[in-house]
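Risk register update: the risk of archive-format incompatibility is retired. Evidence:
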Amino acid sequence: MKTVHVATIAVLVALAIGTNYALVGAYNVKLMDLITFVGGSLFGPFIGAFVGIFTWSIYGVLNPYGFVPQIWVATTLSETIYGVAGGVLGKTSVNFNDKRLGRMIFLGSVGFLLTLVYDFFTNIAYSQVAGQSLLVAMILGAPFTLTHEISNALLFGICFIPLISALKLVVGVNHVENLRK
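Archived output:
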C-alpha cells in the first residue's frame, strides 16, 4: 500500500474522530458514518470496515457520553456496515462524478437504510444494558434514531459526491483503482 493511501486512511479516521467531538452537542448528527462509507468507497470493504472499527476503538473508549463496554462493542461492529457498503458500492459501475439529483437521492436513501440497520443493532445493545425490552428501547430512542437516520440521509445525499471527488483528486483515482484490484 502506498504512503499516500496509508496517510489518507489515517486522515479519514482522525477526521471521523475529530468531527464526532466537534459535533458532540448535536446528538446523533455525525459525519463519522459518511467518512467510514467514503473510506470503503475509496479503498474497498475491508479498509472501510477498518476505518469504522478504528474510529470507534478510539472514540468509543474516550466517549464524552461515557463508556459502556456492551454498547461500545455494538457500535464498533455496527459501524463496519458503512465501510463495507461503501466498498461494495465503490466496486459498482455507478458514476458518482455526475451530480444529478437522482444520484443524490440514491445516496441519501443508502445512508438512511444503513443507519436504520445500525440503529437497530445498537438499540438491541442498549435494551440489554438498560434491562428494557427492545420495543421500549426503540420507542424511547425514536427521537435520536430519527435524527440519526434523517441527518445521515442528508449528509450522504449532499456531501458524498463532493467529498469522494475531492479525495480521488488528492489520492489519485488510478492509484485507488489499482489498489482495489
